[in-house]
């Protein structure tokens, strides 16, 4: 049995023909009531650092692949600084780096042109994408019937929404806070990502600065509860 045969019929969309911009043959696959058999969706999963977003992204990719679906994994500024999704618990998966000029629609179209099925996109670190990328995600869902699952931070070190995250909140069919709790040093639920430079919480600077959460790094990030984010108290270990 091939993967295609194992997949639910609504997912076994025909590949696009030459010049078929819409590409998603499933767009025409409708039930007797005229509704699409497969309604693709844009979903945004968000949470602070360390809450397991990348782990969940890879788990979702695995679960869908097991059901015979085929997807692409994209990322931007992964902690490995390479074209892969890596997780703090040691998982890794190759991924396509989302650069400034990358068009996610072209990415899917060129895969289709090579005969590669794309049923869904997993977009890790989506808060670092450009606004245009989020618009492209919406179009992939609406015009191409491709599911898009985006994972990312909601807010930056100033506790303000990343532009791409804001747009995802505005456009997504479904928004879910990742349920793995990250705790502040005080034991309260961690909510905000503090940037720590030379042992102090900073509130000004570029929106994206690569750091790590290793205590010795010049720039590091620490998840705090709102109370300790606001007071800048990094706890007794700091
Ligand atoms: Zn706290």
UniProtKB/TrEMBL annotation:
Q: Name one GO molecular function term.
A: thymidine kinase activity
- Segments for region (Disordered): 1-23
Provide the E.C. number(s) assigned to this enzyme.
2.7.1.21
**What biological-process terms (Gene Ontology) are attached?**
DNA biosynthetic process; thymidine metabolic process
Superkingdom of the organism of origin: Bacteria
Q: Cross-referenced InterPro entries, in alphabetical order?
A: P-loop_NTPase, Thymidine_kinase
Q: Where is the active site?
A: 125 (proton acceptor)
Q: Name one GO cellular component term.
A: cytosol
Q: Which family does it belong to?
A: Belongs to the thymidine kinase family.
Q: What is this protein called?
A: Thymidine kinase
